[in-house]
Prior knowledge:
This protein is an alpha/beta fold. 21% of the residues lie in helices and 20% in strands. It has a domain at 26-115. It has a four-stranded mixed beta sheet with strand order 1-6-7-8, with no helix packed on it. The protein has a four-stranded mixed beta sheet with strand order 2-3-4-5, covered by helices on one side. The relative contact order is 0.12.
Amino acid sequence: MTDTITYASSTPRLALPLLFAGQSQKETTVNEAILLADFLLSPVVEGTLGSPPASPAPGKAWIIATAPSGDFAGRAGQLAIWTEGGWRFIAPVAGMAVEDRQRNARARFDSTWQYAVAPAAPTGGGVVDAQARSAISAVVSLLVSAGIFSAA
């Protein structure tokens, strides 16, 4: 006799819901997974918030700040996505990255959300090379405008 195959109720990395045999209202599970996948395929957040915005538009998302309140309480560091059905939350995994519109930079998760910060402009030294400093400053500015470095 063969062993019965069992399946988890969600995916191992992002906890997307899975269907199971004999499940009623499968469309609820499928729609939930599609909503989450829709965000995860193009992960863009509006910024970081400690409490939910008053009138979010469907599809808008935020990183939840430390010491959150309201519907965000107890979910620090998670991603919050507003849908027609209310808030959906995603617990980030190491290596996950999102584009942050507020900071115009990419945030990467590694136990906390981290941003690459632009280095300080060159100063000091015994010999000042104005052309080298200008070139370094231009490269840093380009990396900031490309979203590789955060300006703040």
